[in-house]
Amino acid sequence: PHAIHAPNQHTKHNQPMTAPSTRQQPGVVIEPRQEFNWSDESLEILDTAGNWIARHPWTTALLSFTAFRMIQGGIKAIKNRKGSNLFIEIDFTKTALKKDPLDSFEKWMEPRNLYYRDLIETLDLAAKDSSVAGIIVRIGDMSHLGGLSTIWQFRECIKRFREAGKKTIAFSESFGETGENLFVYYMISGFEEIHIPRSVFIPINGRLFSGNFINKLLEEKLDIHVQFLAREKYKNFANMYTEEKFTPEHREHVERLQRELLNMITNDIAEDRGISREQLDKLIDEGFHKAADAKSVNIITHVGHRDSAYQSAVAHTQVEKELNLMYAEVYNKRFNKKYKTLKNMLPWTKRIAVVHLSGPILSGSDKEKNRILSDDVAKTLRAARKDKLIHAVIIQVNSPGGSVYASDTIFREIQLLKESGVKVVVFQADVAASGGYWISLPADKVIATPFTLTGSIGVVFGKLNISGMWKKIGITFDHAEKIHNRQDFFSTLQSWDDKELGEANKLTDNFYDEFKDMVAEQRKLTRGEVDELAQGKVYTGKEALALKLVDQLGTFTTAVEAAKELLGLKKDDYAQVVNFPPTPTIGKMIVRSLLSGSDEKRNSRDEDEARRRGMSTQSVVSLVYQSTGISAYMRRMGAMLRGDISLGELHHEVNALCASAGARSQGIEAYSFDTSM
User: Fold this and answer.
1) What pLDDT band is residue 62 in, cutting at 50, 70 and 90?
2) What are residue 225's DSSP bridge partners?
3) Taking residues 526-549, what's their average pLDDT?
4) Which secondary-structure segment (H or E) carries 560?
5) For the chain, what is the radius of gyration of the CA atoms?
6) What residues does 426 pair with on adjacent strands?
7) Which of 124, 354, 462, 502 has a C-alpha 20 to 30 A away from that of 584?
């Protein structure tokens, strides 16, 4: 092409430009320029495309945007890939595994923390990523690792990671200084390499299960009289208040669970490390081992510090470039776009909602974490039932039990969800006992891990007489003459007499019979079988499967596969899995706070609404009091002293007080967590 020269700066703009020279250079032949002509067929195609675009502007815009995002995503993926020498890092001394999803504020305040399911899905994704060479994990004590069910699911994930040909390396300066060090070692025993400094004595001495009892504190120090009725002899929730040590049945119960859990742990460790069970039992009995001695029996593979682990990772990559490291939480944000893929936009994509229920089961509504409030759960399940885009629901239960009435409310909402055509799968996490088992019953399928503590089919009913405590500090009470015999039945200012105790026994029997009838109906068992399985016994998930109390053992991934099967999908078919209700973003939380107004304005609105509905002045005052922003802790303490809260809530407050004083039980919490069911 000919070059067009700009005019000289001294040339006037209104003068014509000098035509370019066409003088032919010697020996150079200039071919005449060829004009490009569109064929009739090409012009017809372009005309058709133009007409289609004019008729479908929105579809064209959507397709253009989709193509742009796909190209953009491809470019970003290419930029992010760094060869095959990427190692994912997890520092469990700083990163805590959470049992429930984190909201945006929690992610912002604690960016290193991870919801355990996000971590497992991230590692499963990394196992298929050719740019990922392996994983390197720093381990500390038990405080950031979750319960045994969470640890077992992580181990299963590491197994899949190794089967994909990835390197797995773990290192630690210490397994912690508590009795839970065997559980910590259990988490990393499935790693290919374990690096420990030579100065460290490796503690794998196990853990002794025990319980705490406060009867003497209540009866002798505080002058609080305890009355509890249990169905039946293995229902040990009330023993914390009524006994000074294990009863024979309570001891039998705890020792059986201790034996079952430790058997599963030691069997898995022996298999992972390639040693006999007898040899491992001997090593656990000895308790503490020097790093060199532990290496000689394959408890660990390398004696060395942090640098030893990273040098091993470099050696594995066999590349000249520097080792690339990426924290798991960063990899999760960068690569794990499972909720934002194009497949999620397709109308035929099946959607599976995940509802998380964690904590004691109580009546009411409070939007507070680590508690299962029946009104809140019912509202969530009704919303899922009305959402036409939801085809199945996985309910993750992590609860020791609670109120009978609250549990039955949730039970009914799950039944209605099923009747609407939505498939329901319950995944029992660390514990799903008593009321936690009650709300699992109506599901189409119940999945548990081998370490889930479940069952506890039984009831506890009772109250505390705290009048003596008030008298000690100079507070006395009086009351009007009773018009009806049972007006003071639930009063915490006096104990039951023999006749009232008989009535309490009848109520307890009715609750217990109802529970057993529901188990027999939902699990397709005879009443005689349930009578034997019940009695308040807690079972591991492995035992529960053999007793037909659950349908299958597995991880959360197993629950997703079960939901797909109920929807008629194959194991590898795609389904969108979303938390329900979605965790709010920081922006939504701020907007909601602004729209709700200050405490004073909210109190005023509540009072006006109450008066409009004809509530009494006393009810209005109560409503205003409940909506004020006073400390939840003070409110709970006041309710406990007044005796206005359930026995389950009272128990959890006592546990919290014991924990703050450093006196929490060393036993598995579920054993003393059995609440009012």
Assistant:
1) confident
2) 465
3) 94
4) helix 556-566
5) 33
6) 395, 446
7) 124
Q: Phi-psi bin for 461: left (phi > 0), alpha (psi -120 to 50), beta?
A: beta
Cα 624 from Cα 87, distance rounded (Å): 55
Say whether 677 sits in a helix, a strand or coil: coil
With beta carbons less than 8 A apart as the criterion, state whether 379 and 386 touch.
no
- Tell me the Ramachandran region of residue 81: left when phi exceeds 0, alpha when psi lies from -120 to 50, beta otherwise: beta
Contact criterion met (CB below 8 Å) for 492 and 463: yes
Residue 17 reports pLDDT greater than 60: no
Residue whose pair of structure tokens reads 């001695």 in the numeric block: 293
Q: Which helix (H) or strand (E) holds 358?
A: strand 351-358
Q: How many CB atoms lie within 10 A of CB 462?
A: 18
Residue ranges in 274-305 assigned as alpha helix (H) = 277-286, 291-296
Which of 101, 123, 104 is CA-nearest to residue 557? 123
Distance of CA 456 to the CA centre of its chain: 22
Cβ–Cβ < 8 Å for 264, 449: no
Q: What is the pLDDT of residue 671?
A: 29
> Cβ atoms within 10 A of the Cβ of 498, count?
6
CA distance 613 to 608: 9
The answer to whether 549 and 454 have CB atoms below 8 angstroms apart is yes
Q: What is the mean pLDDT of residues 36-48?
A: 71
Give the Cβ contact number of residue 662 at 10 Å. Answer: 6
Quick: pLDDT tens for 171-223.
988 766 655 678 888 888 999 999 999 888 887 877 778 888 998 999 889 99
Distance CA 546, CA 538 (A): 14
Q: Which residues pair with 637 in a beta bridge?
A: none
Q: CB–CB of 229/505 below 8 Å?
A: yes
The better pLDDT of the pair 88, 13 is held by 88
The one-character DSSP state at 401 is: -
Helix (H, G, I), strand (E, B) or coil at 479: coil
DSSP string, 427-438: EEEEEEETHHHH
CA 155, CA 123: separation in Å to the nearest integer?
11
